[in-house]
Amino acid sequence: MLSVHDVRKTFFAGTVNERVALNGVSLTVDEGDFVTVIGSNGAGKSTLLNTVSGTIIPDSGEIRVGERDVTRLPEHRKARWISRVFQDPMKGSSPTLTIEQNMAIAQRRGRSRGLSRGVTRARRQEFTEELKTLELGLENRLGAKVGLLSGGQRQALSLLMATFSAPEILLLDEHTAALDPQRAHHVTEITERIVNERNLTTLMVTHNMEQALRLGNRLIMMHEGRILFELDAEQKAEATVADLLAEFRKLQTVAGEPALDDATLLETARSAEPVADPSRGVTGGASTGGSSAAGVAPEGQ
Amino acid sequence: MIAGIELGLIYAVMALGVYLTFRVLDFPDLTVDQSFTSGAASAAMVILHGGSPWIATVVGFVVGGLAGLITALLHTKARINGLLAGILTMTALYSVNLRVMGGKANLALLREDTVFTPLREAGLQGTVTGVLLLLAGVVLVKLVLDWFLYTDAGLAMQATGDNPDMIRSFGVNTDGQKILGLCLSNALVGLSGALIAQYQGFADIGMGIGMIVVGLASVILGQGIFGSRTVVVATLAVILGSVLYRLVITVALQAGLNPSDMKLISAVLVVLALVLPQLSVFKRWKRRRTLRAAQEVQADVSSSTEHPVTAAIAVPSARRRA
Ligand SMILES: Nc1ncnc2c1ncn2[C@@H]1O[C@H](COP(=O)(O)OP(=O)(O)OP(=O)(O)O)[C@@H](O)[C@H]1O
Ligand SMILES: [Mg+2]
């Protein structure tokens, strides 16, 4: 379904700010696969998703959707097959347009937009049915401007907008990270349901190890622009959060950096995990994430 | 007074164009100053060469659209900053317009047939019937614009101004939308120019100077007073704003100010319209409205019962991007 072959991307190449974001990433995602992507800040997860979606054109390598080579297509031409939900809840919908108008825009994803009426009675009926599945009561507020919704409501709407027109590939980049734990949990539940019901081929970036293990049938871990390791469905079922954290720890010994990154943050967040490593400064402030399902890492972009 | 209303209605077509770029596309387009003149000049030339005034009007529309196209291409293809792209086109068009007018700074149409001749001959110009006929014409333009903005293509254009990242992710080429929007906007501006030239009986090389401020004044004034909750309301507000603006000018002239002071008055009006809403009195009122909207949302979160939201979006203040 989706194949990424030896994709490389360097930002500000040839300057002092040179940043290798993707250093030869290859990945094949089969139809119906739900791949969770983890990795520390700056590992290249977002860049990977951005090259797939077309927001960033890779320096080299190849990206295929099915048999089509889409490596150099701009974002708007890839939208026919690829749909995405942004991390920022404000980014996935148009605030001055109404819920139904946003849905109408989403319904024509990747297709030509002509001079027929955007919101018709028939379409409105369809939107109502779709919105009901969110169980947020949005179906009663079709004419309300999206800018009036809360972040959680907007993100749930974005998710529905990205998925109800049956994309071939769905990209989720920490789409619950900007929400409070409760809302994040809710949006995660909706994600799980939608992806399963529609059997969507999905790439989901998350900083939440527990979520990364629980959701989907495959897991990849990235570090410094590469895919470090991959777990298939079987391995994933057996892996624990502790295993993943151990992997993170290995990285740090290799890199020799006393970083306070996701792994560390998670350790503090999970008091159940007795990981004592005095060499790493664990601050009390980092425990605010609690043991809830919310992503605990602050966004580094 | 009546003349002021008539002018206001014709200029409203230009203001609708300004609304399309500044508000819908969120693009600060300064082409307007000269695309207005281009519309007027080309229409005048067609009439002076014996063409039908209706064809002349259409030519004004098309020529205005071409002016917009140039700005759009400079911005989207040559990647020139939008503001600068408009200024460049505007500056270049000044020379082009002079060429079009055969090197003359002024073209008189007084003895020519114009689209307003039938009105004048029937003795309707300057009467209420005349105003109503003009109003009907402007409302027609408004309705077409409303209709367009509610189509699939129009929604994409609205979203382009609102959230370009989002609309790209749904497969819309935002550059294409900007090109289309700028063409359409300046076509309306050119149309307005063609009509004004015929209405006042001449085209002048300087007639478009400051037009963007007039357009903005109409949009901001109108939407500040009459709101902009939906496209239908917003475009109506623009028309009313344009008429209101002309009436203010008429009153100012009657109060003894010079026609040459009008640019100053326009600019002051825009400044007032932008600053007044920030004053405490207005702010309190605005906060109340926002608060009410927020409460309705809250109510919806706690209970997902049916809740017809009629919440008004906060008082429209000009988008400050430029
Ligand atoms: N648009 C850009 N311009 C310049 N550098 C960028 C850009 N996008 C990403 N980078 C750099 O590329 C590297 C990888 O960034 P990326 O956003 O892909 O990481 P990430 O894995 O998503 O991290 P996070 O967990 O913080 O979101 C980082 O060093 C980042 O600074
Ligand atoms: Mg990221």
Describe the structure.
The complex is a heterodimer of chains A (301) and B (322). Chain A has 301 residues and is of the alpha/beta class. Chain A has helices spanning 45-53, 75-78, 99-107, 121-132, 151-163, 181-198, 209-214, 233-238, 241-255, 262-269, and strands at 2-11, 19-29, 34-39, 60-65, 68-69, 82-85, 169-173, 201-205, 218-223, 226-231. Chain A contains ten helices and ten strands. Chain A has a single domain, classed as 3-Layer(aba) Sandwich (Rossmann fold). Chain B is mostly helical. Chain B contains 13 helices and two strands, in the order ααααβαααααβαααα. Chain B has a two-stranded antiparallel sheet with strand order 1-2. In chain B, helix 6 (128-149) runs antiparallel to helix 11 and helix 10 crosses helix 11 (231-254). Chain A binds chain B through residues 53, 74-77, 79-80, 83-84, 86, 90-97, 101-102, 104-106, 108-111, 113-119, 135-137, 140-141, 143-145, 147-150, 153, 161-162, and chain B through 148, 150-156, 158-159, 162-163, 165-174, 293-294, 296-297, 300-301, 303-309, 311, 313. Bound molecules: adenosine-5'-triphosphate and magnesium ion. Adenosine-5'-triphosphate binds next to strand 2 and helix 1 of chain A.
CATH architecture of the largest domain in chain B: Orthogonal Bundle
Would you identify the regions of chain B where 5 or more consecutive residues have pLDDT less than 50? 299-322
- Rg of chain B over CA atoms, rounded to whole Å, is 20 Å
Strand and helix order of chain A: EEEHEEHEHHHEHEHEEHHH
Average pLDDT score of chain B: 88
**Ligand list:** adenosine-5'-triphosphate, magnesium ion
CATH topology type of the largest domain in chain B: ABC transporter involved in vitamin B12 uptake, BtuC
Q: What is the CATH T-level topology of chain A?
A: Rossmann fold
Structural domain tally of chain A:
1
CATH class category name of the largest domain in chain B: Mainly Alpha
The best one-word shape of chain B is globular
- Do you know the CATH architecture of chain A? 3-Layer(aba) Sandwich
What amount of the residues of chain A lies in strands?
15-25%
GO cellular component, one term (chain A): plasma membrane
GO molecular function (chain A): ATP binding; ATP hydrolysis activity
Protein name (chain A): ABC transporter ATP-binding protein
Main location (chain A): membrane
